[in-house]
């Protein structure tokens, strides 16, 4: 993510944010594609960027169709360090998860969360 942000003259915070400008979305998509080329799963990348896996799929397909951006993503992926197989499971993005999002549910995941047992009882009483 840092390499993609630097290539586009922006910051990693912009890539994690909601900025929809062309520069931010291209940088974000290149970072997602580089992570995908590096072997991370769509859900792992989506969690890292606090997005849905279909957003990552759309971004990677868009970059695949644009040769200069595809080449940049491949170069960034090639420069990423190899992950030791014993410490990190296949497709995990543990090293690249920022502290603010690590272990916390994203906004979309919170909206989709199933209410706990105590909340269900309150919902039944309200009806």
TrEMBL record:
SUPFAM superfamilies: TrpR-like. Residues 108-127 are annotated as: Disordered. InterPro entries: Chromosome_initiator_DnaA_CS, DnaA_C, Trp_repressor/repl_initiator. Signal peptide: none annotated. One of its GO terms (molecular function) is DNA replication origin binding. GO terms for biological process: DNA replication initiation; regulation of DNA replication. Gene3D superfamilies: 1.10.1750.10. Residues 3-63 form the Chromosomal replication initiator DnaA C-terminal domain. This is Chromosomal replication initiator DnaA C-terminal domain-containing protein. It comes from Nocardioides aromaticivorans. The lineage of its organism: Bacteria, Bacillati, Actinomycetota, Actinomycetes, Propionibacteriales.
